[in-house]
Amino acid sequence: MAKNNSFIKLDGTLDGLTFYRQNGESFVKTQSKISKNRIMKDPSFKRTRENMIEFAGASKAGKAFRDGFASMVKLMGDAYISARLSGVMKLINSVGVGKRGERDIDIVLHHAMLRGFEFNKKLPLKSIFYAPYPMPEIDESRRVVTWTVTDFDTDAFVNAPENATHFKLVLATSYVSNYLFNKNTGAFDPENELVNGTGGQGYSDAIPLGGMVGSDIRLEVDMSAIASVPATTALFAGVGILFYQEINGEFYEFAQGNTMKVAVSG
Fold first, then answer.
1. Is pLDDT at 92 greater than 70 in this prediction?
2. Which strand ranges, in their side-by-side order, compose the sheet holding 25-30?
3. d(CA 17, CA 6)
């Protein structure tokens, strides 16, 4: 892959070269000379097929994570969050049980690998919100998560974007099932679909920037409507911050400056 630095920006394929745009930049790559049919049938590409199947499974697990955090991903995720999540899921897959191409993706056993995951790698939470706080608490049933942040000075511990007047702290959750290889379909499926890809959110009131908050902040995500959480499903809880500008009593959410990370899991 190479960058196209010419003032002529093309899209499409020309003389074996494919021109495309990504994140505002133009790139060019050569077309593959290997047919899809050969990759799928030639014994020499067995390892490639195994990797393709496992990457597809990792992508499914990553999508379930994003589905549970859907609104947070939209507000806070960077352009590469899908690829970065798939990468972590592939690492989990790489130490899974089974033969290559069929190794399980044991999210429950390896959930700690996603702790500290930043929704925006270039805007980590600690660079925007750095008041001291305890980690959220997950109750024994794994259906209720709470987070309490003691009173703090917003001038000292919040790095707000220009023109922001208020912020909200956010607690969000996502359930992700283990994924197993299905020999009948030749693909990976969730071990239990009951709550896979679901989640919830809790928001503080809009807090003015400038001075002390004035009280402790307690957030809760209550998923107790769920009868039970399968043992083959992990729970992830993220903490973040959203910024707003107040104009004539209306609060307008910022598109930039918002950020979240996975704080706890279990």
1. yes
2. 2-3, 25-30, 17-22, 12-14
3. 14
Strand residues in 75-232 grouped as ranges (E): 137-138, 144-149, 166-177, 179-182, 187-190, 199-203, 207-208, 217-222
Q: Is 163 exposed, middle or buried (0-12, 13-18, 19+ CB in 10 A)?
A: exposed
Q: Look up tokens 């279990």; give the residue.
A: 266
Distance CA 163, CA 246 (A): 9
Q: Is the pLDDT of residue 32 over 90?
A: no
The structure tokens 């679909």 sit at 193
| Cα 114 to Cα 137: distance, rounded to the nearest angstrom | 17
Please give the single-letter amino acid code of residue 265: S
User: Is the pLDDT score of 72 beyond 60?
Assistant: yes
Spatial CB neighbours of 145, under 8 Å, sequence gap ≥ 6: 136, 137, 138, 139, 171, 173, 220, 221, 235, 237, 264
Q: Are 153 and 198 in contact (CB under 8 A)?
A: no
Per residue in 174-201, pLDDT (tens digit) is 999 999 999 999 999 999 999 999 999 9
Provide the terminal-to-terminal Cα distance of the chain, rounded to the nearest Å. Answer: 40
Instruction: State residue 210 phi and psi, 5-degree precision.
Output: 115, 110
Question: CA–CA separation, 240 vs 126, rounded Å?
Answer: 10
Cα separation of 62 and 91, whole Å?
Answer: 12
Amino acid identity of 48? T
CA distance 21 to 4: 9
Residue 11 CB neighbours (<10 A): 9
The pLDDT value recorded for residue 218 is: 98
Instruction: Quote helix, strand, coil % in the chain, to nearest 5.
Output: 25, 35, 40
Predicted TM-score (pTM) of the model is 0.84
**pLDDT for 26:** 65
